[in-house]
Amino acid sequence: MKNSIGREIPEVIEGYGKTIPFAGAFTIQPAMNRQAPKVKSMHPGRQKVVDTLESVFQQIPITDGMTLSFHHHFRNGDGVVNQVLATAAALGIKNLKVALSSVFPVHETLIAHMKNGVVTSLDTNYMSGPVAKAVANGVLAAPVVLRTHGGRARAIECGQLPIDVAFIAAPAADEYGNLNGVQGPAACGSLGYAFPDAEYADHVVAVTDYIVEYPLAPISIPQCRVDYVVKVDCAGDPKGIVSGTTKITKDPVGLKIAAMAAKVIEAAGLLKNGFSFQTGAGGVSLAVAHFVRQRMEQEQIVGSFALGGITGYMVEMLEKGFFKKLIDVQGFDLEAIRSIQTNPNHLEVSANFYASPFNAGCAVNKLDVVVLGATEIDVDFHVNVVTGSDGVIMGGSGGHADAAAGAKVTIVVANLLRGRLPIIVDQVLTATTPGETIDVFVTERGVAVNPQRPELLQQLVAAGLPVKEIQELKAMAEKIAGVPQKLKTSDRIVAVVEYRDGSVIDVVRQVNQ
Q1: Residue 100 resides in a domain
Q2: pLDDT tens column, 408-454
Q3: Residue 22: inside a domain, yes or no?
Q4: Is 421 helix (H, G, I), strand (E, B) or coil?
Q5: Residues 247, 251, 255, 256, Cα dihedral to 10°
Q6: Closest to 452 (Cα-Cα) out of 25, 76, 110
Q7: Which domain holds residue 215?
């Protein structure tokens, strides 16, 4: 069957189950209750601190077929996932599902566990590095489930992703299980992506290298949700947090795109007091923030908040008075960690608060503008951030589809050519974010506006911006680089791409070798 954007979706996918085809960004209305974790009691005198991960496995006990969850706030510096799975392998445990909010190159040992049957299922929001390549090449029999950040929180809270044991990499803990991410040698900042796991998992294990006297302060995740505390030599390396992020680009083409995107924001009439903003950590995205800041300074504009994964540049904008608040679900660098430690206007929030579509209102709904990237965009403005031009998984939605759905204006910025290939295609290889939630596409050769936003088109034309039809930009790119050959894929599905509401927006098929 075809979903509403024309993608072929099987009614049933082996290893995934019955599918709900994507029918529109705001079509599915929830008819369910939040799940409830097991009720427990804790008698006075009982100790939560255990000596080893192996002891935790035995005390719970962890058995074949369970779902173990992890968060990714250490990004490529994570030290917990590999330790936990090595313990599972040593104990002979098989058929585990790993629900890890994002997968990075540091998690390469997952491949061996997948090959030997310790791990047979993976649920994540983003994948890069060796694990992503192995999945794309069919290392798992069951397809990986790729969610959005808000979609993962929704799935956990609504019982669609039940967690047996959540392992929380905790930079600081006390003996009774109070946790935070802002103290200790492995401080990583916000623990926002671990909040749903802690709240809804049947068992919660804090893995830390820094235990302080009770009570810990401040508290991000409270003792009433933590069952065990395990001290290890290293919970994570904060230096790995900055992997994959950059400073403001110095590339002239990137700066041209960023300057044009800032002009789009101003022409749309959104750059005014109370302005709210989200951008990524890439060089062009940060350059957009730089040009926006210049205009805010010139016009003496003070924004209400900046949202999302927080970088040092956004911290500086807070400290210089350009924004009143930062809403932080994930720190992208060491400056973000420093800021959330000390600044009461730098707020730590959960993935649910940030982006879940099934609650009484998430933060992305309050965004004026979000600036996003793309690996491909098609003539219907659908965006791919999951697969590269070779068909191999190299990313994931993360907060892409969430923020695009919530913001008043969603801007995608990208060079017209990516790796010598046109970025605009007739149909993206893998649809991640639907075109109905993308408003403007900005390149160095011009600006394309979604036809569904005629009033925005008029505003940009009136401001003198180089507005072009997206087909016109596509023709420009093809004149330079030619028309790319269509990639051939097999019938085998290696990943299911869920939209934030749990419907299936696309699937990733194994590339023919």
Answers
A1: yes
A2: 999 999 999 988 899 999 999 999 999 999 999 999 999 999 999 99
A3: no
A4: strand
A5: -160
A6: 25
A7: 12-16+48-241
